[in-house]
Structure formats: C-alpha cells, structure tokens
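INFO batch 0412 | record 1 of 1 | parsing
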Amino acid sequence: MRCLLIASLLAGIAGSVSGHRAPITARKSLGFGPVHPHAVYHSSPYQIITNSFLAQSPNADPFEVARLFVDDILGGEHVQSSYKIRPDSYTDPSTGITHVYVRQLVHGIEVADGNMNINVKDGMILSYGNSFYAGDVPSLLSSPDAKKLSHPHREYCEDLTTALEAQFSTFVSTQNDQVPMGNQKTTEFDEFAGPLTHLHYSNCQFTELANEMASTRPQAIGDVGDMRPALIQFMVAATPNAEVVTDILSKYDQHLEKMTMSGVTHFAPGNDQIDFVVDNVPDAVNPVKARLAYVQVPTNDGSTELTVVWKFEVEMEDNWYEAAVSAIAPHRIISVVDWASDAPIPVPETPKEPASYNVFAWGVNDPSVGNRSIEKENFDGLASPVGWHSLPFDNDPSFEGVKPSKAFYRNTTTTFGNNVFAQENWAGQNAYLANYRPEAESSSYDFKYSPRESDSDEAMTVAKSYINATVTQLFYTSNMIHDLYYRYGFTELAGNFQQYNFERGGRENDAVIANAQDGSGFNNANFMTPPDGQNGRMRMYLWNTANPYRDGDFEAGIVIHEYSHGLSTRLTGGPLNSGCLGWGESGGMGEGWGDFLATTIRSTKNYSDFAMGSWAANRANGIRNYPYSQNETVNPSTYQTLDKPGYWGVHAIGEVWAQMLWLVSQALIEKHGFSDSLYPPMPFENGTVPVGDFYRPAVGKQPLVPIHGNTLAVQLVINGLKLQPCQPSFFDARDAIILADEELTGGENFCTLWKAFSARGLGKDATVQGRTPWGGGIRTNGFATPATCQ
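INFO prediction complete | emitting tokens
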C-alpha cells in the first residue's frame, strides 16, 4: 500500500499544477539504472602509468595494444570472466586515435554494463574507462544454484520510495519560491516524478501480482527459459496507455499465450550470443528482441553483484527502449534506456544539378530573426559525395520494381535521400514510406509559407496547408547538420546516419527518418537513436502556443538539438552501444550537448545571450530555466545547482552542462577569435581539404586544427564525446574535452579550459557524494584549477 499511496499522491499533485495554457508536453519516458561505484575513467598518463602496463612501439597494432592492456588490468586470470573487443571499434582518421570498445563476458554471456573504452595512439594508452565487474563470478545458469542468485532489487524499490518521498516533500515546500519561469519547475517535476512513480508502482505492485500469476503456470519461479513474464512486466511499466495495463492485468494468461518466441541464427561466425524475437507483445509496434545477459547491481555494503537479466529492445509508438529485467522471479526492472531523446566512390551515371530550396538559411534560427531565401544544395564532396537526393537502388527502402540495367544510384525528386527521409506524419504512426513528400519542379523546392490567424478548429488546417515548405525546411536543416557533423568527425566509422556508406566502414541503412508536423503530440520534439545500422527517428511537432500555430520544423535550434542526440549517443561508448546516456548526469549531458551545439550554430561575432525554444514556445526566455549567458545574474547555474529542487530531470541537468560548455566556448573565442562559418572549406576534387583561414597547416601526423575559438570548441566537444566512457559523469566529460585538446593542440588550451569549467564549480576540487541512479547526490562546487594554471 505504501507504494500505491506514494504513486497516487505524486500523480495527483503533478496533475494539479500543470493546467497552464499551452503546456510544454512531454511523452512518457523511462530512464533508470544502477550506479557503479567501482567505475573509473583515467585521462592522465600519470594515472595509467600506475599500472604495470608499459607503452608499446609506436607502430604496434592499436588493437593488440588494447588487448595487452585489458589483460594487464585483469591480471591475466580471466578464465570465467573474459571479454571481447566489439566490432564497432575503429581508428579515427582525423585524429589518429583508435577507439577500442570492450565488453565483459562471464561464462560466455555478456555483462551488459561491463564496459571498457580504451583510446590508443602511437602505442600509448591515452585514456580509458572501466566498469568491469570485479567480484566473485556466480555459478553457471544451468547449475543447481542458479535459482539462488541474490536479488537486491527489493532494496532498489525501497530506495526509490525514499528518494521520491524526500524529493516530493522538498518540491512541495518550495512551490512558492520565486524562480524564473515558474511553469518550468512543474515541467521538470512532471518529467522526473511521472515516469519514476509509474516505474515504482510497476516494480512494487504489479511485480507481486504478475509473479503470483506466473507461479501457477507450468514453468517454475526461477526458470530463465521463458522471458515472457519478464517482458510483460516491463510492458506494464512502459506503456502510457492505462487501457493496455488493465487489459494485461485482466488477461494475463491470454497475453502470455499470444506472445510467441523464435530464435535468431547468425550466418557469420563470431557471434556466440543467443538472440530471440518475441511477437505479439502488447503495445509494441515491432517484434521485441531479447537476449540473456548479466548486469551489475549495487549492494548495501558498497559492492556489486551480478544478476542474470533479459535484455529487451522494445519499439513502441513514442519510445524505443533497451531494458534489463531480472530473468529470475520476482521480475524487476534493473535498468532502462530510452533511445528516443527525445573505397572508391561510385559516380552517378547521370550528373544532376544541385537542388535549390526556399528556406530559412543555415544560421537563421527561426522566423523571428530572418526571412526565407533561396539556398543551394550543400554539395560537400566528403560528407555527401553524391548530394542529398541520390542513394543506391539497393539501399532505397522505397524503391519498388526492377532496377535499371547497370544502374547504381537512384536520383529522387522528393525530400528523400541518402542522409534523411523527410515527410509529413500527421497520423503520428511509425509507418513513413508512403507518407507525403513535396515534389520538386526542375530541382527547385520553392513552396509557399504564409501562416495566418484562424479559429482554433481551423488551426491544424492552416498548418497543413504549408506542409511542402515545412518538409523542405526539415530536409534542408537535417542535411546541413549531417554534413557539418561529418566534417568534425561524425563519419561512417563513428556511426553516423546514412543509407549507403560509400565503402568507408560503419553500418548502413540508418538514414534519419524525419517526420514533420508529427501527429503524436504538440509542443515538443524527440529523436530515437538505436545502435548503428538502424534508422534514427526524429519527430517534430506543431506548437499550439500562438495563433497561428508555430511549427517546430522552422526553429532550427530544435532540429539541431534533436539530431544532436544521435551524435552524442552514437559517439559515447561506441556506435553499437546506445545505452550510455540514459539517466542521471550522463542523460542530462545528452540534452546539454544538443543545447550547446544549437546555440553555437546560431551565434554570431556580435555576442548575445540565447534562450532555447523561444519562438516555438512563444516565450521570450524559452523553455529552459535560464538563457545561456556569460552573466551570472542572467544564468547563475553551477555544478551544485544540480542538487536544487526542479533539477531532477535530464533537461534541467543538461542546462547546467550546456551553460558550462557555453563558457568554455566563449573563453576559446576570447583567446582565438571567431569564425563567421562553422563549415570547413569544401574539399578539392581529390578529396583533400584546403587549409585556407580555417585550419592551421598540418605538420607530420598532426590532425587539422581549427584556428578560431568557436570552431575549435565544436571540434573539442565532438572529440571529447569519442574519448569519454559509457555513462560519463560531468567530471568524465570535462576530462575528456581537456584530453581532446591535449591530443589536438598539444594542450595549448589546458588552462583556458580548466578556468572555464572551474568558473561554474567544476574545478579540480568539485565533489559529489551518494550519486543515485536517478541523478541524486550531494554536490560541492570546486573552483580550483591545476597548480600550473595558478
């Protein structure tokens, strides 16, 4: 009853304070998982030298160097606990750094959160993160004591109850405080409390009911062979539909019978993991992928224990979850990440003229700050070798019929290309191939955009009347982002979004599905990022915050923010690991990188403070607590701000991180100046990049270094994403950016970076105690810099 009372109380209060006009709505999303007290990230050579490992020859195979390093860390005794180097490991040609991703194995089964990311260059280990399980190895699943595996999950539930009670009490006591944007406090509380109370209710209440039902079935409690009871438990927690919950509870046996399992076989050797797919899962839009794994669960004495789980990939209408649910009853949700966050190049047979678009040009954030203009297709020979409207027949999911003889590429005349599939989605469904797209006339996408006031019941009709301009804008902005991020290192090897990878590595068939005027909601946007080789999915909504409605597709900052979720998720922990930015500080930074990059892209040489989402939300100060500013009276955020009421959700956490990055960028601009364009020079026909006034001339193996402060900031942030560990903290991400500068410039900005971070409390003496899976803890600001910077 205690669980139910807490859930009811929180739900009632959250609902009672959210009745303001035109709320900033949020789809339901779960994000939760264990904190690993033993996880480390070392970015200093002095920390790495403390091991017995010595640098290898500069010409040594970097993957062999990584193997030797892992063996050294494990002490050479890992008969039961082993590892594998993941296939998404790669050498970044722009930096020369090899990013090696290692996954722990126990009895041949993956430890899903047992990760090492090792960064190698010239035979040396530059940095590494390690969350490998180091305790006693449990018995094999098939052994008699398999059912005796400990289950500290009840303590998880009790800890969550305690945290919710305390934070709810604090929230109520501060409701009358004078804070900027009072509605934002409610939004952040809804964002935090809503999903967690639902998860909490599911773990506390439904688990007992479901397991009572399951105990009457032929399979015994503790049987790990049937994942259906665990999966149906997760679906009750995940679905936002109360009718689905009621139906599952009332027809438990019928749903289990309908859910059918089948094994997945692999043609190529080397994949020893046993995978399954489950059909007819309530509220899932596609079959659910499942596999057995271990996860590490903290215990009360500060250690961790391995728990056997079913790992599920569940695609729903508005979410795409990766969840770990204990395989042995009682089935409890241990972790959940929502992927929604929010060689020679063939030459086309028939050369085509670049397209043109009537759009708000790159750098014009929204209709309030500029007018539309005719812009040309950005034909970047590196990022988009055959333009934005060509893709191979074999990689085109929309092509039906017989491919023309000897033809390789198909040239499209709609907003459908190798990087982006853009279309309307008024129905709010997952299907997209048959959705409407504008058709170009002589390669020109020039369509009317003239919103007008109307009666409320006509507002949707007015918005739909300019859908051609809307989809064109979304296609243009998304391709510009693709090409920009490509030039800063988000390439095929790094897991970018393309249908065809031009034989340059990485996994194909994952262009961004960009849905304009999505009918599944208002006043929001989201981006789903599954692992490399599966399409990213962006949903852009209308905002009913003004008359006429405001179309989020026309606010570039929102599109950039959403696309940047794909960037940060694919680069952190490797292209095949989408579970590294799910909750807490790491989940918050996933929001912060998007805000920072969107703000940086719109900034000009004449400095200005910027708010996020001002135009779409029809709010001068935007949808965050504060605008991004150098002025502490305008934006007072510090590291310790994360402990304040209202900073429980990932968006609020992200604001603090974005504010820090904004100060870092401004410090670099003060030192190095400002570039009017973030785009590097277009490559020559042979693919080489001219230096111009954008880069320093390269010397030897040194990568190209951007000259100006704003371009350098973007490069360091993106390089830092590649260097940081899975589930990074603020400290880890800070250290990765400082290491990125060391590798790119020789460390010439070492003190500039430290001073900028420490200005808002992230100095060397900053601390956090008692960090919890949902972002809690007690933080202390630190303003100290290294002695060399005094």
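INFO post-check: The two ends are 57 Å apart (CA to CA).
INFO record closed
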